[in-house]
Amino acid sequence: MNDDLQPIDPSELAGIDPTGGLDELLIFGHPGTRRHFLKQVAGTSAAISLGPALMGIGSIEAAETDATSGGNASAAVTHVQLRINGRDHKLEIDPRTTLLDALREHLQLTGSKKGCDHGQCGACTVLVNGRRINSCLSLAVTHEGDEITTIEGLATGDELHPVQAAFLEHDGFQCGYCTPGQICSAVACISEGHARSDAEIREWMSGNLCRCGAYPNIVAAVKEAQSKTPAKAS
Amino acid sequence: MSATTLIGPARSRVDGRLKVTGAAKYSVEFEVPKCAYGWTVESNIAKGKITAIETKAAQAVPGVLAVLTHLNMPKFKEAPKKEGGGGGAGIRNEERFPLSDDGVYYAGQYVALVVAETIEQARHAASLVRVSYAPEEPLLTMEAAVRKADKPKKNNDTPVQINKGDVATALKDASLVKIEQTYITPTETHNPIEMSGTIAHWEDDQKLTLYDATQFVKGVQNILARSLGLELENVRIICPFVGGAFGCKGAVWMHVLLAAMGSKVAGVPVKMHVTRRNMFVGAGHRTPTRQTLSLAATKDGKLQAIQHVSETLTSPVGQFTESCGSRSTGVMYESPSIRVEETVYPVNVSTPTFMRAPGECPGTYALECAMDELAIALKMDPVALRLANHADNHPTKNVPFSAKHLREAYQLGAEKFGWSKRNPELRSMRDGDLLVGWGMATATYPAHKMSAAAKVILRADNSATVQCATHDLGTGAYTAFTQISSEQLGVPFEKVTFELGKSDFPFGPVAGGSNSTGTVGTAIHEAAVLLHKALAELAVKDSKSPLYNTKIEEIGMVAEGRIGIVTDQTKSDSYADILKRAGRDSIEVQSEQKPPEENKKQAFQSWGAHFCEVKIDPLLPRVQVTRVVSVMNCGRIVSAKTARSQIMGGVTMGIGMALTEETSYDPATGLPVIRNLADYHVPTNADVPEIDVSFVGEPDFAFNPIGARGMGEIGITGIAAAIANAVYHATGKRVRDLPITPDKLI
Amino acid sequence: MNPFTYSRAADAAEAVSALSAKPHTKFLGGGTNLIDLMKMGVETPAQLIDIGRLPMAQVEELPDGKGIRIGALARNSDVAEHALIQQRYPLLSQALLAGASPQLRNMATVGGNLMQRTRCYYFYDPAFPQCNKRNPGSGCGALKGYNRIHAILGQSEQCIATNPSDMNVALAALEAVIRVQGPKGEREIPIADFHRLPGTTPNVDTNLKEDELITAVDLPAMPFATRSHYLKVRDRASYAFAIVSVAAAIEMDAGKKITAVRIALGGVAHKPWRAKKAEQQLMGKDADEKVFRAAAEAELAAAKGYEHNSFKIELAKRSIVRALTTVAGMNS
């Protein structure tokens, strides 16, 4: 430890206006004035605005009014019930929340990965009603009533899903970060009937980028899992 | 258990089950209560001063906890540049602290940080921050920055300007066959699928825990402690899994410092997951390079001169340099004269960093293309030309290479590929309407040694836990170190738990430079020696032990789970019995972190040969790589399955480098225009063929007791040249600026 | 992403009335383009009407028993794999499968694909100060910037962006008709009139009115659509936008004389580019590589390239030739 280095003096911090010097509403170091976390206030003080009924279900105001309009509405959230891996989860979330962020940030289902947040890598792939989708480009609020399957829902107890087992055996990954998306995608690829040849697997698994470069092993894993999975009649 | 065989067992990854079930926790996935989210605002000019920042609208967004700019950012403590050996001080490629003044040095520089309760609020609030600038004319190209050009003498203590013999005279010698060409590589971006990220959690005013995606937990710990003025032991870094790195998580980048300070100011833990867009500016990249190669050879192909002039970029707020010539031409071929010149231009572009084989990768691309061009000028087979110039001794250090088996790599590679069936004539090989090209190149990467320490806890149930603050980036470190621990300790593989990724553990160096297997393996070896000694000390004092009263020096491991007299193995004792009789549940030892021993009588370098086939539609010329054979000589291969994957991964990234990857910039603003994974084309599954990987040679015990020289980087060296050479063979068109996209072959 | 009001529509009429009730309203279908652009801050709707569950995902025969009607909310993957499409309009199936990834095709709708916005870097990233499409009057950053993916046909000084869709190129060749519903009822827009050239108003991508909803796409009867091919040239083997693409269909008599031909180009213009000049040149001629090349030359005669995209002119010509030789069965 270098003697020249002194810890930051807490009183120094107290003098800092964390808001850039303009907001009088927020004074830090005084927890009572801090705004509450949406997750924690659900159903209590937060205004849950179920706006004018518009067809079927109510419309839901987003968490804030547009700041540019000068409004400063209280935080609002929407209730959504998601069925994930056979279990129902009730959530109070900002309508802007993507399915991916709902899984990762609100449900601690961090197996689904954020690799680009723009539908360009496939790490966030989950199965919705058996079909593979990019959960980063889908709003959670649109998925009420859907059957959502994530990587956490594939194994049966301690027994790995055949695709998981094949990835492990064939070293179909290195860092493991794209892997849950690859595996969910592979499960769908097989059930769609798009895993009948190496070339077909390569093309139909191309929506899942692997920067470590495990592709040949992924092809081998999908091929093996396919051979152990009864194909969907089509 | 034998450590003398070339290739170790093909085990599945010990961390594999966690990865295939989604249970492996990466940095921003740790659950920290009341965690808020950080979102940055970036400059859209490349050079100038911030004249005003309007943050009122951002603050008005519900849930916003703090908006930090240079006007209210607390000061970081200035960290001394270097301390201690082995790079223990940590790495900062970008040396300016974030939000430390009103200056803008490159486009995309962070100019504000918003902290809010949710991602949605933080992202929206950041979009409402308005920044005004007084822009200045930026330097964006080598040409513009020519007056600021620097010719560094050394890079990391290694000389980079090389002058051996008389290159100038040889290059003028009319009796020699000569080629001179310039090769260009673009900016490349690492783009691991896990974006960089950090959760900063202050447990109290003086204690910080960071869950950080890093290749260097000890380095992050050191830099954060210094930057924030904290005691080293009060800063904890946790990183059990890294979702790929390739160099971009080696240094401490600005988001880490922002998360720590943002959390301090906001009074809550802060999570920052760098956006993919910002991964193109805020986490380093490989600098573009321009390399001119001049070769002169006798008519029978003996090189008389190699000149390698390389030019690269760095940023105004960093010092990173990519040493292309010294790390390729400086080690590769025998030649009486070798000249390497390296020039660095500082430009107003974000700070570059190491990317898989920094220097060697672009350097071997240029050199190995030039060798192909020379082979054609000589009408000589490319493999024969390389064999004719094989360097038994290090060409510029003049000491022999240890355990070099490059000739075997060429031979086995050529055999497996079917190289003898190659028709050297251009455009001569076809598959239906498709042009077929075969190319090859040499791969090389040095064996780096750093320092590390390991702790071993051996239990009476014959299980062991081994700890080191090292990292698994997808490299297979968990598996390889479990394997090494098993064989070195004499404990069954299944009973070893290897733990890494925590700054609490004994020192591990940056997981870079392909050093980890050898460095940490050596530390495990040293800890095992200490363990066996500690067990011996118990046994020799124990009258019930067969080793009672034996001299400690005579005792060593004689079988799995047993120490005994090395020269008389009838006398031995089991670990379990020794511990039980001593009334111990466990025994613990820790090796010492010391500077690595240097062997100056030999040079340590890994080698390999890539052979590849491409197919190209002559009308619509997109290059498809259809076959790759890679033969590597890296000393001992500890873990067969993960080692093969490492080489495959390097080759795959090399396919991207050769054919598709380029981060382009807008000439007006200096902003990257290629800034997402739709436009930055990393190879997809459909771009990559079967890759045939083999290993040749022997364990390199002269290098370290594990015999391993590391292999994370060598796979990407040479492969871009092999592909470019194959494209030339197929089409007759020599493309000297990567990537070889269809437009360049029309 | 700015805040918005979210609601789910029960039927098309109500969706349409919600659209005109409040400004800055957008329909949310598959979301693959809209959510992406909202995250980038390019699209900033105040209201999202979720139409994803409206019953408009059908693929069915038109009353004539020959043409096909595709609901606007049919997912790209479902259309591509639908037996009727594969049998009668394989061109559309090929184009859809050449686009994006299996995941995105499972999400993206036909209506959304029609409305897909350009991939121009200067449009997509608000950090760039100049984009007449995003911010009218600000200039075109691509014109003198990095313009490798940009237009060579039909562009203006205000905008050189391209339409990134593969599906749209096939629809242009198939002369699809877009059915839309507005407050005053339904109308039909031929595909040729659906997308616009940039001119002086590049901020307007299509001729769909702000209060209209796409309900379906009609594919008129076209027996020779079975003899068709979608060719896509891209920078990597999969999961990449087209640099240039060609949708081609051809009808020949027994003597190889061309009796009907449709060609459309992708990746070259602000809209899917129907190659009428090339078609006119080909009509009545005998199918032959030289004839194809001449037709391609005629189509690209007016093409104009910029610093980084001039290669597209020759590439487009070659792509036309290759697509035609393929449909004419002249490739080995």
**Strand elements of chain C, count:** 12
Q: Which strand order do you get reading across the main beta sheet of chain A?
A: 4-3-7-5-6
Beta-strand content bin of chain C: 15-25%
What low-confidence regions of chain A span 5 or more consecutive residues with pLDDT below 50?
1-59, 61-75
Q: Provide the gyration radius of chain A in Å.
A: 23 Å
- Quaternary structure annotation: heterotrimer
Spatial strand order of the main sheet of chain C: 4-5-8-6-7
Q: What is the H level of CATH, i.e. the homologous superfamily of one domain in chain C?
A: CO dehydrogenase flavoprotein, C-terminal domain
User: What shape does the CA trace of chain C take?
Assistant: globular
CATH architecture of one domain in chain C: 2-Layer Sandwich
The chain pair forming the largest interface, with residue counts per chain, is:
A-B, 93 and 106 residues
Which class best fits the helix and strand makeup of chain A? alpha+beta
Shape of chain A: globular
The fourth-level CATH homologous superfamily of the largest domain in chain A is Beta-grasp domain
Helical segment count of chain C: 13
Structure report:
The complex is a heterotrimer of chains A (234), B (746) and C (332). Chain A has 234 residues and is of the alpha+beta class. Chain A has 2 domains: 39-153, Ubiquitin-like (UB roll), CATH 3.10.20; 162-227, [2Fe-2S]-binding domain (DNA polymerase, domain 1, Orthogonal Bundle), CATH 1.10.150. Chain A contains 7 helices and 7 strands. Chain A starts with 9 loop residues before the first helix and ends in a 7-residue tail after the last helix. Chain B is an alpha+beta fold and 746 residues long. Chain B has 3 domains: 27-137 and 193-244 and 249-279, Aldehyde Oxidoreductase, domain 3, CATH 3.90.1170; 350-446 and 600-745, Aldehyde oxidase/xanthine dehydrogenase, molybdopterin binding domain (Aldehyde Oxidoreductase, domain 4); 450-590, 2-Layer Sandwich (Aldehyde Oxidoreductase, domain 4). In chain B, strand 18 (429-431) and strand 19 (434-446) form a beta hairpin. In chain B, helix 14 (640-659) packs across helix 15. The model of chain B has no long low-confidence stretch (mean pLDDT 96). Chain C contains 13 helices and 12 strands. In chain C, the strands form 3 sheets. In chain C, strands 4-5-8-6-7 form a 5-stranded antiparallel β-sheet. A 4-stranded antiparallel β-sheet of chain C has the order 9-10-11-12, sandwiched between helices. The model of chain C has no long low-confidence stretch (mean pLDDT 97). The longest helix of chain C is centred in the C-terminal third of the chain and has 17 residues, at 311-327. Among the domains of chain C are: 5-53, Uridine Diphospho-n-acetylenolpyruvylglucosamine Reductase, domain 2 (2-Layer Sandwich); 228-327, CO dehydrogenase flavoprotein, C-terminal domain (Enolase-like, domain 1, 2-Layer Sandwich), CATH 3.30.390.50. The relative contact order of chain C is 0.13. Chain C is globular, with a radius of gyration of 20 Å. Chain C is α+β, with helices and mostly antiparallel strands and 332 residues long. Classes of the chains: A alpha+beta (234), B alpha+beta (746), C alpha+beta (332). At the A-B interface, helix 1, helix 3, helix 4, helix 5 and helix 6 of A face helix 1, helix 2, strand 3, helix 3 and helix 5 of B.
